[in-house]
Design brief:
With about 180 residues, this protein is α+β, with helices and mostly antiparallel strands. It folds into three domains: about 30 residues; about 80 residues, Immunoglobulins (Immunoglobulin-like), CATH 2.60.40; about 55 residues. It is built from three helices and eight strands.
């Protein structure tokens, strides 16, 4: 029984020695470790973005790492975190970051769709609306004019007729231009 026990202990020691040796070989000087790059913020892979500017931040497990970045599949160029992509057109875009020594960059692909707001009125429409507002004002002033004499009443009626005609014309311009 003690012989089997001793043999078992030796086998355990042998297994332990093999594990230590393997670990030492993995961390021995000159052994290359794969550097890993991670994008830590920015649009997620496949995300729909409704603005024309996005910012990405990224890190590496190597604190002394320098980075290269690629935007929309163009070549990698030196960069630092964060990177902002602005004035993006609608459509599909990509961002990739890699630390020096990282053969597999972290990549994010996303789509931009900036909603189009309502288009403002044309210059012709704005001018027509101003003209109509001025004609309404003239008509209102003509109607509110005091007229006690026959001559004043006649002048008031003429001013109302002219202002009414101007307002009709201005309203037609508004219909055409707006």
């Amino acid at each position: 029984m003690s012989l089997i026990h001793g043999h078992g202990r030796g086998a355990r020691y042998g297994l332990f020695a093999a594990l230590i040796t393997s670990a030492l070989l993995m961390v021995s000087p000159g052994t290359a470790w794969a550097v890993e790059t991670t994008i830590t913020s920015g649009p997620e892979d496949g995300e729909l973005v409704t603005v024309d500017s996005v910012t990405f931040t990224f890190t590496s497990d190597d604190p002394a790492a320098t980075f290269d970045c690629s935007i929309d599949g163009r070549g990698f160029k030196p960069c630092t975190s964060p990177v902002t992509m602005s004035d993006l057109e609608d459509g599909r875009h990509s961002f990739a970051a890699r630390a020096d020594g990282d053969s597999t960059p972290d990549v994010r692909k996303f789509k931009v769709e900036v909603p189009q707001g309502p288009v403002g009125p044309s210059a012709g429409c704005v001018a027509a609306r101003k003209s109509a507002a001025a004609a309404r004002s003239r008509l209102s002033k003509a109607k509110s004019r005091k007229a006690t004499t026959r001559k004043a009443k006649k002048a008031k009626a003429k001013a109302i007729a002219v202002a009414s005609s101007d307002l009709k014309k201005a309203n037609l311009k508004v219909k055409r231009n707006c």
